[in-house]
Amino acid sequence: MMVILLGPPGAGKGTQAKIICQAKELFDFSTGDILRNEVKKKSNIGKKIESIINSGKLVSDDIILDIVEKIIIDESSKNKGILFDGFPRNIDQANSFEKLLKKKEKKINLVLHLLIEKDEIIKRIQKRQSEENREDDTIEVLKSRIDVYLQETTPLIELYKKQGLLKKLNGMQSIENVNNDMNKFLDEIN
Ligand code: AMP
How many whole angstroms from 19 Cα to the centroid of ligand 1? Predict the structure, then answer.
């Protein structure tokens, strides 16, 4: 099962991904977590991408697609599927992803779109910054991340809607209620 979580920063994608992946035995694949880990390790990739991540812009598609291909090869056989949190982030990534999945005889089964208002995003990111101290959780960088989301990522909503894969969820509810709503959609495709 290949599931994509779509939504702006602070929508609760990471929180929901953890709960779902544990319950449904999916691999929790957050491109953001993998990239932050590369920065922490000070690897060659990490050095290249640190300033990009800290500015809220997107890392180059080539770097991301290499990581994605490796994860699909390594993890699909070990789990019941993969939950993608933070990928694809633009139309080019979505097109390359589709080709890659076809090559591996796989397909996207579901896209869960978390909706949340801007005021709530700001509140949640400020709270997360006080807890996790992420460099890209400052108000200035958050503005850039929201702009990038609106310009580059939201066209995916239409793309997946057309393919009949998109399910909308109210991300302003409690963690438990969002999770219940997600489970209904996940159970439908099981
Ligand atoms: P996230 O944890 O998903 O909010 O991602 C944090 C940062 O990592 C983003 O602001 C981007 O700089 C980078 N990033 C994560 N996923 C991607 C992706 N699929 N394509 C490009 N950049 C990404």
Answer: 21
